[in-house]
Design goal:
The chain has 305 residues and is mostly helical. It is built from eleven helices and no strands. It folds into two domains: 221 residues, no CATH class; 63 residues, no CATH class. The protein is elongated, with a radius of gyration of 22 Å.
Length: 305
């Protein structure tokens, strides 16, 4: 009976965390189907690949007998984190090509979502394995709010680096991939080392708390920058006679009607597409950007008040 509780205890918190993160991205919320794709990549693709590579590499380094005992601290600290973070990051090969991925906020949202998916499956396995434990409730709380959050924060850090360079450069060079994955791996390794070392285990939770606050502040600052850039680009749209002046403040208006909400979303998309268009140099890219913007303006005109 206790094992049956592993499913809801693992799934429900991570789904709620994903929904909260999506709702915090208030100016340009990511499509639900894309978030679910990233969530399931973390839950299935990244987890299964990590499990396969982890087991083979650990057996190769420490031997099959040591692996069977399940007591390999060094593997959890030095092998697991880089493999898991790289497996989670694989989906970003596709993510960076999406029109919906265009700024630092998006990077945090997509990265955290992959992490929540990974944590869901990992927690489910651990909850089933420890179903008969006397301190099961404490174990579930620990894994949900610390280990689960670790995966989201680490992958969110990686996503933030990619989103930042996507917004500022229009592409993601290898330097920024390393600049994102190295801190993610370092955070994961540090946490695993600290919590597995009894004398300093409390510091592991401090690291998670500090990283959480730091990423939250970065997220909030990114939203403020978004507001600034959206307003600037929409003001240029007004000056070019493409949209009415009242549309500039529409994305920031409270109590929007359904029609206003739809218009606000398209206005934000127009603003980010204008920003992205500044980074393209090829003739076909410039032409494509014009087509996309023209299509967005047509969509805006078809929405009835």
């Amino acid at each position: 009976m206790t094992q049956l509780l592993a499913l809801p205890c693992a799934i429900i918190p991570m789904v709620i965390f994903m929904i909260i993160v999506r709702r915090l991205d208030r100016y340009d919320p990511e499509p639900l189907w894309l978030l679910l794709t990233h969530f399931f990549w973390g839950a299935v693709g990244a987890y299964v690949l990590s499990l396969m590579v982890n087991s083979k590499l650990t057996a190769l380094i420490f031997g099959k007998t040591a692996v069977a005992s399940g007591n390999i601290k060094d593997a959890a600290v030095f092998i697991g984190p880089p493999i898991e973070e790289c497996m989670k990051a694989l989906i970003f090969i596709l993510t960076v090509r999406l029109l919906d991925f265009n700024n630092l906020t998006d990077g945090i949202v997509y990265g955290a979502t992959v992490g929540f998916g990974f944590a869901m499956t990992e927690n489910m396995v651990y909850f089933i394995q420890n179903a008969g434990s006397d301190n099961l409730v404490q174990f579930i709380m620990y894994r949900t709010f610390f280990s689960g959050m670790l995966h989201a924060l680490a992958c969110g850090t990686f996503g933030a680096a990619l989103g930042y360079t996507q917004f500022n450069k229009g592409k993601v060079p290898i330097l920024f991939i390393l600049g994102g994955i190295i801190p993610a791996i370092a955070l994961h390794m540090t946490f695993n080392f600290l919590v597995s070392t009894e004398s300093v285990s409390t510091l592991g939770f401090v690291v998670i708390a500090v990283t959480f606050v730091g990423l939250c502040l970065t997220f909030a600052q990114s939203l403020r920058f978004e507001q600034k850039f959206i307003r600037e680009e929409l003001t240029k749209e007004v000056e070019e006679g493409l949209i009415p002046e009242e549309y500039v403040e529409l994305p920031f208006k409270s109590g929007q009607t359904k029609a206003e909400y739809k218009k606000a979303l398209i206005c934000v998309q127009i603003a980010f597409e204008r920003i992205a268009a500044k980074h393209v140099t090829e003739d076909w890219q410039i032409a494509q950007a014009k087509v996309i913007l023209a299509d967005m303006h047509k969509q805006l005109q078809t929405i009835k008040a």
